[in-house]
Amino acid sequence: MECYFGEIIKGQMNLSEIGEIADKYWKTIPKHFSFVLLDEYVIMPNHMHGIIIINVPYHSDKRNENHDTDVETLHATSLHGSNPDPDGNKNEKMAEISPKPGSLSTIIRSYKSTVTKYARKIHPDFAWQTRFFDHVIRNIPL
Fold first, then answer.
1. How far from chain centre, in Å, is Cα 64?
2. Spatial CA neighbour of 128 closest among 47, 73, 51
3. Model pLDDT for residues 12-55, shown as the tens digit of each residue
4. Model confidence over 60-108: pLDDT tens digits?
5. Is residue 14 included in any domain, yes or no?
6. Distance from C-alpha of 9 to C-alpha of 88, rounded to nearest angstrom
7. Looking at the domain assignment, is residue 16 inside a domain?
8. In angstroms, rounded to a whole number, what is the distance separating the alpha carbons of residues 61 and 84?
């Protein structure tokens, strides 16, 4: 676990150039996902924690026209080793298990992709861990 994001000196987190990139693009998430609110977050030397509020009214009988109303946290899937269904419809199968628009997975994938693009200009070996860990927090007043 490389400390790409900075170091702690005298009890204070000092962001590296890559840490500054991670911070900058975290703050822009709501510009790309209008239904997202950001709460507390902290960038640590080799990872970060953040609270993302997916601000979508829940309607049990229908879906919002722009994205699902359920919190979707399916992690990124791989095409490697996927077998097509008996009719040869591999794309339809992948569409069923791929992260859905508006899902937490899509938000995090977009964020990590953007940070990676700029971080690799500084450190070509920059890489995130392959997954993220999530916990759903419900019933928080906004």
1. 21
2. 47
3. 999 999 999 999 999 999 999 999 999 999 999 999 999 999 88
4. 444 444 444 444 444 443 333 344 455 555 555 555 656 677 788 899 9
5. yes
6. 56
7. yes
8. 32
Does residue 37 form part of some domain? Answer: yes
Task: Give the single-character DSSP code of 77.
Answer: -
Please check the confidence at residue 120 and state whether its pLDDT lies above 90: yes
* Rounded CA separation 19/14 (Å): 8
Q: Structural domain of residue 23, as residue ranges? A: 6-56+103-122
Count of residues in the chain: 142
Total tally of structural domains belonging to the chain: 1
Residues 132, 7, 15, 25, Cα dihedral to 10°: -10
pTM: 0.69
- 11 in a domain, yes or no? yes
Copy the structure tokens of residue 26: 């975290």
Q: Collect all residues with Cβ–Cβ distance below 8 Å to 30 and sequence separation of at least 6.
A: 36, 37, 38
